[in-house]
Amino acid sequence: MKAQDPTRRAIVGATLIDGTGSAPFSEAVVIVNGNQIETVGARGTAQLPPDTQVIDAMGKYLLPGLIDSHVHVSAPDYTSIRPKGSETAYATVIAINNLRSALQAGVTTVRDICGNRINLALRTAVQRRMLVAPRLFTAGKGICMTGGHGSGDPDSVHEVDTPDEVRKAVREEAKAKVDFIKLLSSHRTDWPEFSQAEIDAGVDEAHRFGLNIAIHAANFVSVRMAAIAGVDTLEHGSFVDEQAADIMAEKDIIIVPTLWVKHDLAQRLENWKATPEKFTWGDEKDLHVSAAWFKRCVDQLPKTIELVHSKGIRIAAGTDFVMTDRPWALLPEEMEYLTKLGLSNMEAIESATRIGAEALGRVDEFGTVEVGKLADLILVDRNPLEDITAMTEVSWVMKEGAIIPRSPEWARSPIKDPISL
């Protein structure tokens, strides 16, 4: 008969970086009872209850499970080669593979920023323990204006045009039991899409239902409008001016800048201008417009991050990667970009742990290694405070007290398009 899992486990001897921003301390003891953290202390002072399983972590670094604050569990780009049969079924399999590879890489929570109803079904599967995957929070369908950003995927967005229609779409998503609301109000241009009245209506209606609201806003005007409306999180926010930053700081708005993907797309577009047939973003004119916008974007990002950082605006780490030729679990690369643009290694870790939980309104439940919180824990072999790339080599993962076993299919490797038969 198979032995039951022990009720208590103690991770002993690691240097603890707890996600709060506090200084690390060596030879820590973290005792997990069931799915929660029961004790956080120092070796030699923490008492181990009888029958506790001891996990020797000497020489390693213990951190909270990572939180990716901007993902899409389902996107049309994942099915670039159409399968036989149901595209939804195929997209679901890809989404499951993505989620499992992220968990293997130490991402224990993801914030799905909008998509089709696959996201809600997967959330249910994770909650019911039918799927070993990161904890999943989702905005359900996004809300955009007619012809606006996202309108090319009608299964994933509501297209609306008045404040009342925005409110109705929020109510539809609240009815579907989403975790938060997503508006989209810019797309590689210098002009906003939603009016101020429409953004205000979305924020007011979401907050009336007790839901946080995120907004895709990536130019100066839409960022300022979103800040004035009082959104909870600003997604991308590539162009932020002093006025908007002051409002964001005053209203405690979190920014999710998705840095790595912008640099990656800028490089792809520059490389592919000569071969537009290899890119799916419209005709050659669209390709050159997008290339020019992303170049401006990456040129602006150092100024934007310096500005929001100087104002004390919280920055959450999110990846937003929907291609099939790189790993889905790119949060360590996002953390590295945060450090390249001025954050300390400790601040990058906070962005990928505690601040991610704050963006979800769940910091009382997870995001730091503290007594009473869910036991989401990871170990790395090198000191990430000295070299942030150590986060690419997570060697052990625990989610809610359960140790995640290694499996080759969960490796942090790209999805490969199947041979067309």
Secondary-structure topology with pairs:
Elements (H helix, E strand, L loop, with lengths): L7 E5 L2 E2 L11 E6 L2 E7 L10 E4 L4 E4 L1 E6 L15 H18 L2 E6 L5 H10 L7 E4 L3 E4 L11 E4 L2 H13 L4 E5 L11 H13 L3 E6 L2 H10 L3 E4 L5 H10 L2 E3 L2 H14 L11 H27 L20 H10 L4 H7 L2 H6 L17 E4 L13 E6 L2 E2 L18
Structure notes:
The protein is α/β, with parallel strands linked by helices. It folds into two domains: 8-64 and 368-407, Urease, subunit C, domain 1, CATH 2.30.40; 66-359, Alpha-Beta Barrel (TIM Barrel), CATH 3.20.20. It has eleven helices and 18 strands. It has helices at 87-104, 118-127, 163-175, 196-208, 220-229, 242-251, 259-272, 284-310, 331-340, 345-351, 354-359, and strands at 8-12, 15-16, 28-33, 36-42, 53-56, 61-64, 66-71, 107-112, 135-138, 142-145, 157-160, 180-184, 212-217, 233-236, 254-256, 377-380, 394-399, 402-403. The protein has a five-stranded mixed beta sheet, with no helix packed on it. The radius of gyration is 21 Å and the shape is globular.
